[in-house]
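Predicting holo structure, beta-D-mannopyranose bound.
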Amino acid sequence: MKKNIACLSVIACLLIITPSNAQTTDQLATKETRNLLVNLKILLNKGIMFGHQDDLAYGVSWKYKKDRSDIKDVTGDYPGMFGYELGNLEIDRLANLDSVPFDKMKTYIEWAYKKGSIISLSWHVNNPLTGKNAWSLADGAVASILPGGPKHALFLTWLDKLAAFALDLKGPKGEAVPVIFRPYHELNGSWFWWGKNHCTPEQFTQLWKFTVAYLKDKKNVHNFLYAYSTDGFSSKEEYLERFPGDEWVDMVGFDFYQREKPKDEYLRKMEYMLTTLEQVAKERNKIPALTEFGGKLSEADWWTGTFLKALGNHKISYVLGWRNAGLKETGEMEYYVPYKGHSTEKDFKKFAKESRILLQKDVQYKMLYE
Ligand code: BMA
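Done. Tokens:
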């Protein structure tokens, strides 16, 4: 009898922790997607994946060179995590708002998956009400696309295109490539049409839920984990004000750039936000991540002198450095990770050698999708 009970409890334990039982937002998430969620949780105890937006597409002084990456140029290895951006897919452009062709993006994503890195997709989606870009502000844009709204049908066609792209991402065995989808980001700011001053918390959460439900239930997209990602915040209440609910979110994160902030202020804010984020993640059984960052790269030791200190002993899944756009048409220089010859190159190498900073080779053998 006792033996039977022991047996049963072992079986029960196994059932609890098997990936097939992972609590993904999407109950029908693919095996690889469920495995990813379980493995991300385990990996929290090992280190932080280093990510870079548009890494394989271009760097500060180059564009579309096979296998090139500013991170690889500097460290000899690729990022453990890659970010790509879908804005303009919904209006049938061949390239996204930062000129990355979607067919190339697809090959970068499939390559990253094959190499064992993880992938996140953001979506600076155009304003469905004004027909202009994501920064085109109009009160009522969110309301207009909710069920019953005048732009609802149009927005569904945009989600259809997003779904088609997601379903077309394939691994070597024909399996769908798991992706962390991070829509409607920086939602507590007001610079995007879905931002704080342009819709109520209820409208925002409705938008979130209907997007997720439509993708998984109507379009059969089962390779998404969903990331809720704010901008910087100053209280837990602010962070959670527009949180759609535990059953609609897999990951929690925030975007934060140092810009002109003095080091002390940056460190203080990061410490507060990462602590709060970890608390939220723990309470709600979610995976925490720094979903975008950028630092003061005029300081030669920024990586070990500031960023590593900001990360402290926090257990977060990944940090995503934004894009190395280089010199833009506006005359502005934009980059967030070093390139060969940059003044922080040496310090970045030191940073990347830290055992808990994970590049591609460090995550590869963790087999995050198995
Ligand atoms: C911003 C800038 C823009 C870019 C946008 C979307 O932070 O990098 O140049 O168009 O992100 O990627």
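The first helix runs from residue 2 to 17.
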